[in-house]
Amino acid sequence: MILQGKNIVIGVTGGIAVYKVCQVVRSFKKLGANVDVIMTENAARFVTPLTFETLSCRPVVTDMFHRSVHYEVEHISLANKADLLVVCPATANAVGKFACGIADDMLSTTFMATTAPKVVCPAMNTNMYHSDAFRTNLNTLAQRGVQVVNAGCGFLACGDNGDGRMAEPQEIVDFCVKILCPKQDLAGKKVLVTCGATAEKLDDARCITNFSSGKMGSAIITAALNRGAEVTVVLGIHTAAIDKRAAVIDVQTTQQMYDEVTSRVSDHDVFIMAGAPCDYRPKTISYSKIKSDSLSVDFVKNPDIAQAVGKAKKNKFLCVFAAETDNGVQNARDKLIKKHADLAVLNNIKQNDVFGSDTNVVTLVTADGYTDYPKMSKADVANLILDKVTK
Q1: Is 319 a catalytic residue?
Q2: Burial, 372: exposed, middle or buried (Cβ in 10 Å; 0-12, 13-18, 19+)?
Q3: From CA 27, how far away is CA 62, in angstroms rounded?
Q4: Of the listed 88, 121, 158, 278, which one is catalytic?
Q5: pTM over 0.70
Q6: How many CB atoms sit inside 10 A of residue 285's CB?
Q7: For residues 225, 355, 278 and 298, what is the CA-based torsion angle, rounded to 10 degrees?
Q8: Regions of the chain where pLDDT drops below 70
Q9: Considering the chain, what percentage of its residues have pLDDT values greater than 90?
Q10: Which single residue of 175, 218, 321, 376 has CA 20 to 30 Å from 93?
Q11: b or e along 95-119 (b: 16 or more beta carbons within 10 Å of the residue's beta carbon)?
């Protein structure tokens, strides 16, 4: 999900548009964000805190002096936690407080204390919206780096028709997503990612497979989606969660993965071979359970998915992975050349706990050389790879 792991604090002030904020909270949650809501005393007159607690799955903060079971200065806690602070609706009173540095309730103190990006979504009467005092206060906030989702025009609760309606919930959500996920450098591109392991049947009870969890592929899928790509996943056996925004094609065997990938070469711009297909399969399959004190199995080579893509891709981008135990850089460079790839991601599986881990240590190998990177999250590795794609 595009906002997975992001912490958004929503400040709700007293205006009739409070009911719209319910949809804002709901949308952020659907995108995977953690949402905390701070309500002013007047906001709670329009919609009860229970409503926002139900939608956010978090307690709503209303009282600056509420005594928690654990000792924590709550406005500082939320200020430090926030990746983004959004005030909607932002009344003229709230904007005036923020501009003048008044900190007399939970929201205004959190607003002053946080260093996270801040967004205000004004909502008020038309004359108030165009008043010199409000415009001066809003301009002051803008000069300090606070971003504004401008009010819309329409019928207002006071009976006037004009500027002052709070922006629609989806407009606010889209505005905030661009702040939290600023890179959209893959917009309009189609990315195909292989993910997870394949399995080759030995008999009716057993198969040959490998240790891949699909976590690296999963991280690439989410990162590519967040950067605007349309993503297709050819998915084998996996334990990692797969972003629901991607188009998923389930496969089991290497031949199935080969067929699905190669049939889509003409339709996609970028191919990232993060899957772990079995290089070999049993030459014969037993259709009853093998019972023997000893077992000898003849294997045959499976088709090479990456090499097939490399031969057919023309000017499209191909990234391959090299899980090596010895001579890592040389083997990765050889693989880069053999597969006609543009990037090889090297994992030294002797020095690095690759399988099932949330972190990775990689070396990125291109025709121009290679770069070693320290241990980092697989999400960060995914963005390193995609940075190479966009270059």
Answers
A1: no
A2: exposed
A3: 22
A4: 158
A5: no
A6: 12
A7: -170
A8: 1, 64-75, 155-161, 350-354, 356
A9: 72
A10: 175
A11: bbbbbeeebebbbbbbbebbebbbb
